[in-house]
Amino acid sequence: MSIDTDHRSSMSASEFRSAIGNFASGVTIVMTSDGDTDFGTTASAVCSLSADPPMLLVCLNRGSDTGGAVNRIGVLSVNILGEDQGTLASRFSAKGKNRFEGVELVRNGSGAPTLTDALASLSCRVVDRVEAGTHTVFHCAVESASVRDGSPLTYFRGRFGRFALPSTEELAGRIKSELSAYLGDVPVRVADLARHFDAQPAAVAEVIDALAGTGFLQPGPERDGTYYVTGPAVSAGTPADRAVSFPTHHPQRSHADV
Ligand SMILES: Cc1cc2nc3c(=O)[nH]c(=O)nc-3n(C[C@H](O)[C@H](O)[C@H](O)COP(=O)(O)O)c2cc1C
């Protein structure tokens, strides 16, 4: 089968936008500088391409001033915004203002400036580009990155929002329901549970502490942070069946399973 590069869709741009707007994304500000002039635009059409070597795709409209500067200079930074940076995202998408006024930047030699308080900043060099529809797809080699703690700004159906992690109560409910089957005979460890539930070890440790406080779990004789279930079992099965199913033989789940 050959690829039809001249294909014209019967779908309108607004129909496409209302469908693709359901794809929740993070939000970045792509920056570069040309001489004394800084350029920056809000961009969500950014995605991870390869981990080895580390590469990103950045898609910028051919009419974007930032895209034009990236074309000329060949370096850019991708600054992933935190949940409290929606105002900055709006500012860097609106025309006609000095977007950089009062914005703190880090400048490292010949690279593009980065945003001081982004959730993560990746400094990149353009290694290839492809024109596609209205946009230029920049293939970017990532040369360095910095990361800070926090939660991301999100974009969904034309609105900025927050990423909601499962609450500790919800995680506690899931852990308790799973552990109820393992009365007394299976060691319970934070690292195993964190892997099993694809959860942060600190959140699991908090739940374990709370369950130990209620008497549902008790510390094992190992005295190394291992616990055993002392609460009532809710499901049947022989200890041998249960011991092989959890937690040491449980396959690690991927995000796709959640
Ligand atoms: C949430 C959001 C995401 C956006 N993503 C992109 C994008 O990925 N690529 C793009 O070219 N424009 C994107 N835009 C639009 C640009 O930010 C906007 O056109 C900006 O004015 C371009 O600035 P410039 O011409 O100075 O580069 C996005 C806007 C918003 C609000």
Which terms would index this structure?
binds flavin mononucleotide, seven-stranded antiparallel β-sheet, three-stranded antiparallel β-sheet, 258 residues, Pnp Oxidase, Chain A, alpha+beta, Arc Repressor Mutant, subunit A
Describe the structure in your own words:
The protein has a seven-stranded antiparallel sheet with strand order 3-2-6-9-10-5-4. The protein has a three-stranded antiparallel sheet with strand order 1-11-12, with no helix packed on it. It contains seven helices and 14 strands. The chain is elongated and about 65 Å long. It has two domains: 14-162, Roll (Pnp Oxidase, Chain A), CATH 2.30.110; 168-250, Winged helix-like DNA-binding domain superfamily/Winged helix DNA-binding domain (Arc Repressor Mutant, subunit A, Orthogonal Bundle), CATH 1.10.10.10. Helix 4 (168-179) crosses helix 6 (201-213). 24% of the residues lie in helices and 31% in strands.
Instruction: Indicate the low-confidence ranges by residue numbers.
Output: 233-258
CATH class of the largest domain: Mainly Beta
The fourth-level CATH homologous superfamily of the largest domain is Electron Transport, Fmn-binding Protein, Chain A
| CATH architecture term of the largest domain | Roll
